Amino acid sequence: MEPKLTHLCYCLLLFLPLLSQSTIAKPSSSPNPSNNSINFIVSSCRVTRYQTLCVKCLATFANKIRRNENRLTQTALAVTLVRVQSTTVYVAKLTKARRIKRREYLAVKDCVENLGDGLEMLAQSMRELRQVGGSGRDRDEFLWRLSNVETWVSAALTDETTCLDGFDGKVMDGVVKSAIRRRVVHVARVTSNALALVNRFAARHKS
């Protein structure tokens, strides 16, 4: 196994506890979320660039989010982490694709590295946001942790968009580029939405 892929597998093992221990990692078992919870999600998603996608990602968790902004933000990050994780594993498998050209292979490897870095940023963000909930008495620490989350989620989004840079130009057109672009564009939009919700959460507490 390639060293970078070994590192990726190790990182994913570290991230799994974050999801399994989270009270928001799984959808609510209740089939009928309240209108207030759904309306809260719809209203919150108005600050995002991809509003329909935002609501679709979060509505399943409405009964857990309720009208809690911290839970909403944590859920957005958890959903993002899961989807980026899935995409990273998928892209990594493409290095083993038959008849992959060397230029494509190198671009895929770079993409895996970028997505892996983004995963680390998102995992750090989830850990930090949990600490925010326990540091409300110290306003300076509270705002410092929120600033960290904003910075790291923004960095993750940059990593995702950078993933596609290696596939620029018509010479790279093909099945591999198409498959990666479709998935990475999706997770970049999910991450963009999460960042907007993080920024909204932070702005409300900074004012």
UniProtKB/TrEMBL annotation:
Gene Ontology MF annotations: pectinesterase inhibitor activity
Cellular component aspect of the GO annotation: apoplast
SUPFAM superfamilies reported for this sequence: Plant invertase/pectin methylesterase inhibitor
Record-linked InterPro entries: Invertase/methylesterase_inhib, Pectinesterase_inhib_dom, PME_Inhibitor
Domain Pectinesterase inhibitor: 36-197
Superkingdom to which the source organism belongs: Eukaryota
Keywords from the named record: Apoplast, Signal
Tagged with keyword Signal: yes
Keyword match Chloroplast: no
Signal peptide start and end residues: 1-25
Intracellular or extracellular location(s): Secreted, Extracellular space, Apoplast
Family named by the database record: Belongs to the PMEI family.
Protein's name in the database: Invertase/pectin methylesterase inhibitor family protein
